[in-house]
């Protein structure tokens, strides 16, 4: 199963960006205040859309 992480040092946050949350087809992400969080990692298919739309490279999908 892929693992999904967000590097909050470079993430622009839910208000300024939120692209991963808007574009993930499996709704893996949720908005928590001003943050985007990985809420349903078990649903991730590893499609890579979140990495493609992330403007900073903050979100990473890794395969074990
Ligand atoms: S790899 Fe695809 S399914 Fe997994 S979190 Fe990113 S956009 Fe969602
Ligand atoms: S797309 Fe990237 S910068 Fe934007 S909210 Fe998601 S992880 Fe943060």
List the helices and strands and how they pair.
Layout lengths: L2 E4 L6 H4 L2 H5 L5 E4 L2 E4 L10 H5 L5 E4 L2
Antiparallel strand pairs: 1-4, 2-3
The chain binds iron/sulfur cluster (2 copies).
Verbal overview:
This protein is an alpha+beta fold and 64 residues long. It has a single domain (3-62), classed as Alpha-Beta Plaits, CATH 3.30.70. The protein is built from 3 helices and 4 strands. It has helices at residues 13-16, 19-23, 49-53, and strands spanning 3-6, 29-32, 35-38, 59-62. It has a two-stranded antiparallel ribbon with strand order 1-4. Strands 2-3 form a two-stranded antiparallel sheet. The longest helix has 5 residues, at 19-23. The relative contact order is 0.36. The model has no long low-confidence stretch (mean pLDDT 97). Residues 6, 11-12, 17-20, 36, 53-56, 58-59 line the site of one iron/sulfur cluster. One iron/sulfur cluster binds next to helix 2.
């Amino acid at each position: 199963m892929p693992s999904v992480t967000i590097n909050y040092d470079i993430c622009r946050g839910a208000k300024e960006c939120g692209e991963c949350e808007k574009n993930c087809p499996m709704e893996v992400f949720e908005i928590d205040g001003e943050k985007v969080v990985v809420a349903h990692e078990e649903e991730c298919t590893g499609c890579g859309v979140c990495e493609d739309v992330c403007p900073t490279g903050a979100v990473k999908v890794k395969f074990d």
